[in-house]
Amino acid sequence: MASNLIHQHQHQHQDQDRQWLLNCLTATLDPNQDVRSFAEASLSQASLQPGFGGALAKIAADRGLSLGLRQLAAVLLKQFIKKHWQEGEDSFEHPAVSVEEKEVVRRLLLASLDDSHRKICTAISVAIASIAAYDWPEGWPDLLPALLKLIYDQTNINGVHGALRCLALLSGDLDDTMVPTIVPVLFPCLHTIVSLPQTYGNYLRTKALSIVYSCTSMLGTMSGAYKAETTALMAQMLKPWMDQFSVILQQPVQPEDPDDWSMRMEVLKCLNQFVQNFPSLTENEFMVIVGPFWQTFVTSLKVYVQSSIEGEENPYDGRYDSDGAERSLDSFVIQLFEFLLTMVGSAKLRKVIQNNVKELVYYTLSFLQITEQQVHTWSMDANQFVADEDDGTYSCRVSGSLLLEEVVNSCGREGINAIIDAVREKFNESQQEKAAGSVAWWRTREAILFALASLSDQLHEVEGLGLTSINLGGLAEQMVTEDIRTGVHDSPFLYARLFIFVAKFSPVISHGVLEHFLSAAIKVVGLDVPPPVKVGACRALSQLLPEANQGINQAQIMCLLSSLTELLHQASDETLHLVLETLQAAIRAGHEASAASIESIISPVILNVWASHVSDPFISIYAIEVLEVFISSIVTLVMIHVFYFVFKRILVFVKIRWIQCCIMVSKC
Questions:
Q1: Contact (CB, 8 A) for 543 and 501
Q2: pLDDT tens, 236-267?
Q3: For FRET with 319, which of 84, 222, 298, 484 sits at 20 to 30 Å CA-CA?
């Protein structure tokens, strides 16, 4: 009787503690700042009491409570684990969690991994991973068996998801002592998931592949010191995975299927690791994935063109799943190029695509087209256009251009010929599109100009060495003279790229064409044209003016200086350095009289720019350099005037002395 009363009292006390904790958690979400602050302070005090971690774990595991409260409890539990779980850690704060409470927390969390709510499952997995960092494997030997048990239970898909999510977090922290032990047990299990699409679906298959990638990365890191052991370990597992990768890549890429894109992306990441870390093993099995990979590459272009290049808005751009993994088409395409870079850069695997390098370049050029989203963003914000061009922002265009550079570096003359042939073919196609009335014909033209400009240094080098028979200057002039007739407002991005392209290829373009583009660029800077066109013109001027003849029309220079001064008032931080750089080139190219006549107008503006950006080392240096050029020009002009004045006085003196001598001679 007495024991029953004691039990009832304890149970009632526990219920009161639980209700108090629930009330506190609810209060932390209250819109009233005072209520929130009091609740947070109360929870902070409660965290110092025995059983607090277990109480949070129970709330997080209670499927009858609201999703928000459970998720909050799981997040607070993770913070609690970091502070109180392991003595001796930098983040540790007293008191430490008891052994009994640790056991309760671990048991409750493992039992909650099959929750149907993915956000809860992720929060629980994060908490388990936090504990595993301290306890696993020695202090928590049953963790991996419990996770594998969940994975093998095909009747509980939620449990499979929870276990995979947890393993994905754990696999990122595996060390070289754990991976060799885990991989032989784990990989067959993961292979089963990946090979059964009807049972598990693409989302779970992607999670399984992400774990394969993490483990293979660690094996690759170990291969330096333990080459024989890691090679032996991978040798027995490589073929089944390569066969499965070929099955996944064989299917055509589908639009509006981000789960499929994500899965293929993980396959490509795994292949990259296989090729980089185990080249001899991979080479033997590589042919099985060549055809399927090419199928993925070609069909992904069609989807990319429809969704990103022609589509007004990519609904999956910048999207992430509930675990924080990116699901965008762009990230998938970038991973395609990453793998191709690895293939082309490998002497052994390059042979596989050597006969199809022209086709590779041809399709790559199509990926380089400006997307509709970029057109919208860059049209509205010239600063973003400049920033993306300057920083080489990671994108499909940048990744594709890097692949083309690798083709030139690795394939030599054959690679260059393939690029030139593909460029000519694309140029002719765009001509046909233009004749047929297509409004998007300019995208292909802009893409091939962008590609050639990114390869300009390499192309100039091989042309100078006579390593190729291509007429680079003739090709460049053919394209630019054709496109300069396009209306600047009809195709502003093509017009902008033309200026940049001409500046890059000025050494091989005839003087007459350069003069024409130089005049056009000077004129454009002062016109009401789309901002990207002015950006392209400024880039061209900053490179072409220093190389131009000193006989540039002074009226043109004065007009340019006036236009650039006006641009300084409109420029932001991103575009300011470009305007200042162009201004400096214009001052150097003009006559000293030009600088002197406009100095009183420009100098105050430059000084204001310097004062406003004195904390920015790049802009302030550009501003100072412009002032130095001004001073140098004016000093030169002054010195000329002084010399002329002195020379005249000398002439007068000489003339007087000569007359005096003549008079003296006549008297004699």
A1: no
A2: 899 999 999 999 999 999 998 999 999 999 99
A3: 298
Query: Where on the phi/psi map is residue 82: left (φ > 0), alpha (ψ -120 to 50), or beta?
Result: alpha
pLDDT surpassing 80 at residue 316: no
**Which residue type sits at 232?**
A
- What gap in Å lies between CA 256 and CA 329, rounded to an integer? 9
Q: Report residue 223 as tokens.
A: 């291969």
Structural domain boundaries in the chain:
355-542, 549-667
Cis peptide bond upstream of 145, omega within 30: no
Sign, Cα dihedral of 383, 385, 386, 392? positive
pLDDT at 625: 81
Place of tokens 């000077």: 522
Q: Is the pLDDT of residue 188 over 60?
A: yes
Terminal alpha carbon distance of the chain: 156
Q: Are 81 and 53 in contact (CB under 8 A)?
A: yes
Given pLDDT bands bounded at 50, 70 and 90, which one contains residue 415?
very high
Question: According to the model, what pLDDT value does residue 23 have?
Answer: 93
If one counts every other C-beta atom within 10 angstroms of the C-beta of residue 393, the result is 11
Q: How confident is the model at residue 661 (pLDDT cuts 50, 70, 90)?
A: low
| Residues contacting residue 332 through CB under 8 Å, at least 6 positions apart | 261, 262, 264, 265, 300
Please, is 167 exposed, middle or buried when counting C-beta atoms within 10 Å of its C-beta (0-12, 13-18, 19+)? buried
- pLDDT, average across residues 566-592: 83
Residue 7: the pLDDT is: 41
Q: What are phi and psi of 326, to 5 degrees?
A: -75, 140
- Report residue 226 as tokens: 């333990």
588/596 Cα distance (integer angstroms): 12
Return the H-helix or E-strand segment holding 199: helix 197-222
Query: Which positions ≥6 away from 288 have C-beta within 8 Å?
Result: 242, 243, 246
Give yes or no for a contact between 226 and 168, defined as CB atoms under 8 angstroms apart: no
* Sign (positive or negative) of CA dihedral 570, 573, 574, 578: positive
CA distance 142 to 128: 13
Residue 588 CB contacts under 8 Å (≥ 6 apart), including other chains: 545, 546, 629, 633
Closest CA to 97 of 134, 62, 137: 134
Read off the pLDDT of residues 345-364 as tens digits, 9 standing for 90 and up: 988 888 888 888 999 999 99
Number of helices (H), then strands (E), in the chain: 30, 0
Question: Considering just the CA atoms, what is the radius of gyration of the chain in Å?
Answer: 35
CB neighbours of residue 158 within 10 Å: 16
